[in-house]
Amino acid sequence: MKVEFYRHGLDEADIANVVTVLNSVFLSTGPVTAEFERKFANYTGLPHVVALNSCTAAMHMTLTALGVGPGDEVITSAMTFLASATSAQHAGATPVLVDVDPTTGCIDPAAVDAAVTPRTKAIIPVHLYGTMCDMTALRAIADKHGLFIVEDCAHCIEGERDGVRPGHLSDAACYSFYATKNLACGEGGAVATRSEELAKAIKMVSLHGMSKNAASRYHGAYQHWDMLRLGWKCNLDDIHSALLVSQIDRLDANWARRHEIYERYEKGFGTNPAVRRPRAAGKCAHHLYPIWVAPEQRDSVLHSLQQRGVGVAVNFRAIHLLAYFQDTFGYKRGDFPHAEAIGDSTISLPFYPKMRDDEVDYVVEQVLATVQGR
Ligand SMILES: *Cc1c(COP(=O)(O)O)cnc(C)c1O
After folding, report:
1. Could you tell which of 127, 131, 176 is best to mutate to test the pocket of ligand 1, judged by most ligand atoms within 8 Å of the CB?
2. Which of 47, 59, 88, 197 is deepest in the core (most CB within 10 A)?
3. Among 178, 286, 351, which is best to mutate for testing ligand 1, by the most ligand atoms less than 8 A from CB?
4. Parallel, antiparallel, or unpaired: how do β-strands 73-77 and 120-124 relate?
C-alpha cells in the first residue's frame, strides 16, 4: 500500500469557480476576492479580512501596518516554521525566540514574559499543529507590557481554547492557504482583525502604498491615485480566491473527518511510550498529526516509513538550530530544550479528509512495526 503524505480535497465546484474567473474580464484582486474576504470574515467571527498571497506576507504586512520595524523586538516560538520569525525581520524588526510547553509544543507564556525587554513590540504566538496557544495568559502579558499580538494561524482556522478563537484576543490572526493547509489554493494567505483601521493600513502597504486598489481604479469614472508610503506587492488575485470561496463551506465537515482520523490514530497508538503525541488543549484545528519518537530513532523511523510507502514530513526542527539563525543571532543547541526535544523526535503522519480508514490502519501498523524494529 502507498499512503501519500497529503492529497488535496478540491472538487469540481472549486475548479468551476476558477474557470468562471478565467472567462471573465478581471483576473486580479476584484469581486471574487472581496466575496472570499466577506465569507472568511464570517467564518472567523471577525469583521475584517484582507486576503494576501501568503501567511508570511500577512504577518509582515500586519507588523508593518502596526508600526513595528527597525529597533523593535518581536517574540516568537523556536518550534515553528521559520516564517514566524523571518516575517518580523522582513518588517525590519529582530525576532526573539523562546521555548515552548513540552506537552503541546505551543509557546510558553512564562518564557514570553521573561523575554520582554524595553524594545519588545509584539508577540507572534504559533498555534502549532492546530492547538491554540494559551491566549488568555498571552493577552495578560501583552497588556502588562503594552505589546501587540499577531497570531500565526497557519495551522489553525478551526481551533478554540478556553472559549477563545484565533484573532479574538489579539490584534490580528494571520492564515496560510498554502497547498497543504486546511484551506488551500496553492499559495495564499489572509489577515483577520477586529480593527477596520488596521485592515485598511494592511491593504495599503500590501499594494505599493497606493491610495486606490486596482478594482476601484477601473470602476466608474477614472480617478487618479497617489502613493502615500513605501509598500509591497502581495495582494491575492481572483483566480486564487475562486478556489477558496466554496471550500469555506466544507471547513467544518473536513475538520470532522480529520477528527475521526485523529481518534483512529489515537486508538491505534494508545499509550505506547514509543509513540508519544502532543497533549490536546481545547478544540484542536487538526492541521497535522505528529508523533514524537525517541530522538535516536527518529531518522531511521522516518526513512523506514518512506520505504513502507507511508508519506512523512518533519514539522518542524527547532528553528534556532537552522544555520541562518545560528549564524545571525548566535543561537546554539541547549538554548531551548523543549523545542529541541520536539524537533528531534517529531514525525508528521498522513492526515487529510480524503484518507480512508484502511490507510490510517496501515500507517498505524507500519509505525508500530518500525518503532519495534520489526
Ligand atoms: C505554512 C506556515 C507558514 C507560512 O505560510 P505561507 O502561506 O507559506 O507563507 C507560517 N507559519 C507556519 C507555522 C506554517 O506552517
Report:
1. 176
2. 59
3. 178
4. parallel
Q: Give which of 35, 87, 62, 38 is closest to 240, Cα–Cα.
A: 35
Q: What burial class does residue 94 get, using C-beta atoms within 10 Å of its C-beta: 0-12 exposed, 13-18 middle, 19+ buried?
A: middle
209 and 228 Cβ atoms separated by less than 8 Å:
yes
Span 68-77, pLDDT tens digits: 999 999 999 9
The H helix count followed by the E strand count for the chain is 14, 9
Question: Considering only CA atoms, which residue is closest to atom 5 of ligand 1?
Answer: 55
85 CA distance to ligand 1 centroid (A)?
11
Q: Which atom of ligand 1 sits closest to the CA of residue 83?
A: 10
Q: 3-class DSSP state for residue 293?
A: coil
**pLDDT tens digit string along 76-100?**
999 999 999 999 999 999 999 999 9
**81 CA to centre of ligand 1 in angstroms:** 6
Mean pLDDT of 295-315: 98
Q: Could you tell me if the CB of 156 is within 6 A of ligand 1?
A: no
Please name the residue that has the C-alpha cell 501567511.
55
Residues 272-299: tens digit of each pLDDT: 999 999 998 999 999 999 999 999 999 9
Give Cα 326 distance to the centre of its chain: 23
**CB neighbourhood size of 156 (10 A):** 30
Tell me the Ramachandran region of residue 330: left when phi exceeds 0, alpha when psi lies from -120 to 50, beta otherwise: left
Q: Name residue, grid cell 493600513.
A: 201
Is the predicted pLDDT of residue 215 greater than 70, yes or no? no
354 noted as active-site residue: no
Per-residue model confidence (pLDDT) at position 214: 61
In this structure, the strands spanning 346-349 and 189-193 are: unpaired
For residues 175 and 188, give the distance between their C-alpha atoms in angstroms, rounded to a whole number. 8
Cα(317) to centroid of ligand 1, in Å? 14
Question: Is the backbone peptide bond immediately before 351 cis, with ω within 30 degrees of 0?
Answer: no
pTM over 0.85: yes
Question: Cα(130)–Cα(271) distance, rounded to whole angstroms?
Answer: 22
Question: How many beta carbons lie within 10 A of that of residue 89, not counting itself?
Answer: 14
In this prediction, residue 248 carries a pLDDT of 98
